[in-house]
Each structure stands twice: as C-alpha cells, then as structure tokens.
Amino acid sequence: xxxxxxxxxxxxxxxxxxxxxxxxxxxxxxxxxxxxxxxxxxxxxxxxxxxxxxxxxxxxxxxxxxxxxxxxxxxxxxxxxxxxxxxxxxxxxxxxxxxxxxxxxxxxxxxxxxxxxxxxxxxxxxxxxxxxxxxxxxxxxxxxxxxxxxxxxxxxxxxxxxxxxxxxxxxxxxxxxxxxxxxxxxxxxxxxxxxxxxxxxxxxxxxxxxxxxxxxxxxxxxxxxxxxxxxxxxxxxxxxxxxxxxxxxxxxxxxxxxxxxxxx
Amino acid sequence: xxxxxxxxxxxxxxxxxxxxxxxxxxxxxxxxxxxxxxxxxxxxxxxxxxxxxxxxxxxxxxxxxxxxxxxxxxxxxxxxxxxxxxxxxxxxxxxxxxxxxxxxxxxxxxxxxxxxxxxxxxxxxxxxxxxxxxxxxxxxxxxxxxxxxxxxxxxxxxxxxxxxxxxxxxxxxxxxxxx
Amino acid sequence: xxxxxxxxxxxxxxxxxxxxxxxxxxxxxxxxxxxxxxxxxxxxxxxxxxxxxxxxxxxxxxxxxxxxxxxxxxxxxxxxxxxxxxxxxxxxxxxxxxxxxxxxxxxxxxxxxxxxxxxxxxxxxxxxxxxxxxxxxxxxxxxxxxxxxxxxxxxxxxxxxxxxxxxxxxxxxxxxxxxxxxxxxxxxxxxxxxxxxxxxxxxxxxxxxxxxxxxxxxxxxxxxxxxxxxxxxxxxxxxxxxxxxxxxxxxxxxxxxxxxxxxxxxxxxxxxxxxxxxxxxxxxxxxxxxxxxxxxxxxxxxxxxxxxxxxxxxxxxxxxxxxxxxxxxxxxxxxxxxxxxxxxxxxxxxxxxxxxxxxxx
Lengths: 264, 179, 361
Ligand SMILES: Cc1ncc(C[n+]2csc(CCOP(=O)(O)OP(=O)(O)O)c2C)c(N)n1
Ligand code: SF4
Ligand SMILES: [Mg+2]
Prior knowledge:
The structure holds three protein chains of three kinds. Chain A has helices at residues 6-9, 35-49, 68-71, 84-94, 106-112, 114-123, 163-166, 172-177, 193-211, 227-230, 234-248; strands at 56-60, 75-78, 99-105, 128-133, 136-137, 143-144, 182-189, 217-223, 252-256, 259-260. Chain A is an alpha/beta fold. Chain A has one domain (31-258): 3-Layer(aba) Sandwich (Rossmann fold), CATH 3.40.50.970. Chain C is globular. Thiamine diphosphate (TPP) is lined by residues 62-65, 81, 105-108, 132, 134, 136-140, 145, 226 of chain A.
C-alpha cells in the first residue's frame, strides 16, 4: 500500500466532519467531556442548516455557558442570572420575524429564574428554550442545584441531597409541559453520537416551529454531565448519568404539537 | 385670580368628578388647573377629597393647608376641613347628614340642599352637579358655557345625552344656594 | 399648540411613551403608578403605533425585558414605584454595564420596605448614587408637573440613545396621581426595523450579512479589559455631567436665600416662596431638574455671590442636601427640612423652617 500523506487525507472528498461556521474559532472554555460544547454545536448547526444566521438572536445565561456568546457566531445577549426568558420575551415581541432562543443551565432556569421560565412558557412566548440540566451548579464549583438527585453529594449537600432538608429534585420540564403555552417539550441527551443526533432533530423541530410561526414555546431539556462538579472522569460521569439520571429524567418527547405524550 | 378649593365627602358622592369638571372648565377658559385627590388608605372609611386649584398663573403647590373655599358633603369632612378655610373664605355645605353645623364667624357659610334637590329631580347621581351650581353662584370663577364644554370633554360620547340634565342640575344649584 | 388635556401624571407619562414613538412598555402593577400600564392597556398602542405593551410577572422580569428589547435597539420603557424599583436594581446595573438605552420611571412612595403608598422622595440616593452594584451613574430627570411627566419622556429617550444608558424619570405619588392641564406633543414616528438596524450598529437584531456578530454583555472576566470598559463609562458620565445639567431658577435674582427642591417639593416650595416674600423674606427657588448630573455649578455660583443660605426641601430624611453640601463645601449655610414616610410638607412649615434653620439659626 502506498503511503498516505497528510495532503491526501485533507482532500475535500475525504472530509467526514466540518465545524459549522456558526461556531467561532475560539477554544471552548468547557471541561473536556462536558456536554455544553456539544449542545452549543448542535444548536448552531441547526441555525446554519435553517439558513437563519442573520436572523437569529440568542440569549446566554449565567452559568458555565455564560460565555456562550464567545462561541456562538450569531447576535447574542448575555442575561443576568435566570433572566434569559424575560430578555427573549421582549426581543421576540419587538422582532417577531427573528429567531430567538435562550440557552440556560438548571440553576439559571429552574432556581433563580423559575418565575421567568414559567411565565414565558405560560404566555407561550414564541421562542426556543434550551435547558442544559447537569444536576449541579457547575460554574460556581459544584453546589446543589434544584435538579440534583437525592443522595447526590455536592459542596452544599456534602452528605448527599436529603429531601427533608433540600426538597426533591425538580422536574421543571414536566412542570412546564403542563402549561398550555408550550407546544413542544422534549428531553434529550448529547453524550453519545446517537443521542446527539436525536437531540439535533429535536432542536431542528423546535426552531422550525418558530420559523413557521407555530404558536407557543418550544422547550428542549438536555440531560448532561458535569464531570468536574460531580468529581468523576468524563467516562464515569456519563455512566453515572445513564444509571442515575435517566431513570429519573427519562429521555424522549413529553409534549408534541401541544399534546402531552400519554406514557409520561 | 387664583381659587384654591377643597371638595370633601363620601366616595360615591361624585366628589372627584365634580373637581374634575371644575378643572376641565378652567382649561376651557385658558386657565391653569390642578386636581389632587386623596388616594389609598386615606380613602378608607369611604371619605374622598380633592384639592382643585384654578388660576391665571402657574400653580405652585397642588396640596394646601388652607383654602379659599371648602365644599363639604359629610360630617367627617366638616370636622376636618372647617378649620382650613382662610379667613374671609367660603364654606359651602349640604346640611343633609350634618349633625354639627359650621360655627365660624370669620368666613361666609352657604348651604345647598343638594341631596334633596337631586332626589326631587329624580336622579341622585346629579347631586354633585347641584352642588357645583351652588358653588358657581357663590364664586363664578368659570362660565357656565365652559362647564358644559368641560363636561363634553370629560364625559365619554355615550353620556353626552345626559349633558342637558347636568345643566339643569347646575341651574337648580345656582337658584337654591342659601346664605 | 398641541392637544390640551386634563390628565393624571401617570396617564401623561403613558401617553407620552406612545407619542414619543416607544416600541415597547413592560411593567408590573404597583400603587401609585398602576395607571401607567392601565392607561396603556386601555389605549391599545399596538393599534395606534404598533407599540408592544406587556404586563410582566415581576419587576425583575420587566427590567430584564428592557435589557432584551433595548439590546436590540428598540425604544423600551418601564415604570414602577419604590419597592418595584428596588427589585430592578440588579437589572439596572446590567443595563448600565451593557450600555443599553431605556427609560425607567419611578413614581416614588414612602419607605423603607413596603412603606406606604403616599408620595415621598426618599429614593434619591438609590437613583443617583448607584442603587445597583458597580461604578455607574444614571441621568435622572425629576418632573414637577403633569406637563413635565409628558415632556420628559422624549427627552429621556433622547438622552438614553445619545449616551447609550438607562435614564431614570423620578417623580412621586403626588405628581403621578394629580391631574393638571397638559399640552400633548404630536405623535413622533416609531423607527422601522430597517431604520433601527441602520441607526444602531451595536444592537443585536440579527447579524449583518457579511458582517460581524454583535454582543450585548456586561461581562469581562479580564480585569484590565473591564477597567478599560469602566474608564469608557466614566468618560461618558463626564460628558453627561458637562452637558446635561438641568435646573430652573425662580425669583432668584434678588434672593438672599434659596430653597433647593425638586419634583413635588419644588411645587410646595414655590408656594412657600410666595408666602415668605409676602413677609418680606427675599428667598428664591433653585428647582433641580436633573438629580444627576447635579446642578453643583450654579450652587457654587450662588455661594460665590454670597447667598446667605440654602434650605433643601425634600420629602426625605435629607438626601439631596448632601450634594448641595458638596457643592457649597462649607462656604455658606446649608440645612435640610424634610417630611418622611409619605407626609407632604405644608407650604407654611417650609417658611418656618427657613426662618428657624437658616435666617435665625
Ligand atoms: C444574582 C446572582 N446570584 C448568584 C450568582 C452566582 N452564580 C453564577 S452561575 C451560578 C449557578 C449556575 O448553575 P447552572 O445554571 O446549573 O449552570 P451550569 O454552570 O451548571 O451550567 C451561580 C449561583 C450570580 N452570578 N448572580
Ligand atoms: S464545570 Fe461542569 S458544566 Fe461546567 S464546563 Fe465543567 S463539566 Fe461542564
Ligand atoms: Mg447546572
């Protein structure tokens, strides 16, 4: 066999993957193995594929993805902690023709910003809400989140989350699915190529609904890992997530076309 | 000319709207006006009052301690505002429901049987217009035609058919005010 | 001449928002300013001009709606009263940091805490000395009549866009609730989406074709860069201080003493001035219109000219008086006379205070 040179390898016909131009060249600030990077990329791929590069306004949260605007190559606003849905509400109402999305973590969306989340969904704001649930406050060093599992150790639940003390993990996604304002509510993951492909389809569906003027809020939870916060290797974190989080936060659609899926 | 008035009584007697019509009438003849109601817990217990100022000049304070005229429509207001009429000023009241009549001698006191006249006219809602008529007889600070114009501006179109009735009420008030 | 109406201050503010060509109003009810959103909802500005009106779930949401909407270059506004404005402080700090134009009206009531719903001026510090965190300033207009509740809205929007900053309109329950004659200015056109896109290249309303994406943020994790950003903000505040001071002098030419007051208390002080002059006291009134930037220069001039004393008349425990003292710097007498908790001064007691604290004191 003739020796293969780099030149041969990088020939266009050998291209198997290309980064979307809607991700900047800036090095991601996320820990290796973190789901945020994949979730960003899928979101931007969808925007690119839908041809909405120049018509999209995204809202970044406070959390590890606070710098999402450094990586997502569309017009972006950086919100105060928890307030992304309020920003997005106004943006969409003032620019109904544009595509508007929020990107938030569990502390941002389901603790400090619960009111903004519920009310934006309840008004049926025509926005896409992307919710990365890693069961912890990654950014601030691994404190308990509203979605932290029972028994899970975090820096503010050092003996494990105790329902009597801290309440139960919050299934905010099921909760907002109950609201008539939401039209498409789904729970996905991005830790395997197969899961990521599904998540991308879900994102695409959500953005398409907004572009096509389907009324209502679309909401995509991504159950994700936080190997740093969980103090695990990326691999262990993914395994732990599959074993412990997926049973409690089952993947799949919760509401489609405004109708709750029966089995959930 | 500056006329500083307090109108005080029960909510529902049309205290605030009487003030408003007076203020609107002032605007109709190019005067400066202010209308400052009591609001919030001050109004608990059902009392309402409004300070109205009509002036040829820029109005300074919209809230006052002393008034040129007090129009008083219940006992609580009498207790509170009799003392606030400036010496030489005017106190106009409806004796209906008043147990302690005003006793000051350094002011001019007028009476108007507003509630009775309105009832006789078959519409208790025009009570405040009767009182307004009485006031305008004593202090013709705004012309009747401007009151009518003011009414037209402040009332929604669908109530304009009631303007003649209001005009009658004002006339009745003018005729029946007694010193 | 514009249309003449008898309106409440709150209604005039709302009508002025529509006429100023505002694109959006976001608010949450609170006494004594709920008439603003009530008026807007009744008036259907979305039919008149296309303006969006939305009742938010809280003041936290309202102010963040301004962040979102203002960040796209649209003219947005909210209003509230003291407790609601406190809740907005975080958002206001973000708006200042991210340099987003918007207008926030505070119809002040008595505090602290839930306080009461009567007029007060005890939010002066909060308005002009920060309120939220960080080194920022807000141009703050203080209307003292219903007419100014209307007139100051377009001025506030102009300042907001000229300097890319939130602008406060600070009035109180008295100005909000009272009715006066107001001459409404004519409807100004709303900018079209295309005009907004062209006019405000910093705004995030969709990345320009072939251009760079825009970012609205107050974050910079590099302290040296953040220091630079802060210097830029400070330079802007200096420019505002140099150019945007507003005040009014009433009977000040021959005055030996000056009342200094703003908003409602300036109205009351005007009456006190008349009463005092009837007694032969030569007092004038310096009515402060911009709480920030403050009229320090004119206070300095009067001090130089040998004025015998300033009496700050505020419905507070003495907040603006600190700025007067800074301007006077010990060269003449400065006293404060305040009523607290929602009580309004009587014009007579203000004269008494002048006699006791300044003339006789
Ligand atoms: C008002 C306010 N309170 C607290 C913080 C500190 N803080 C920053 S991020 C964060 C939690 C973020 O957690 P999450 O939303 O789950 O995002 P993750 O980092 O896990 O992706 C907190 C508490 C803040 N920035 N602002
Ligand atoms: S701390 Fe957790 S959430 Fe944050 S980047 Fe690291 S792995 Fe991701
Ligand atoms: Mg998290």
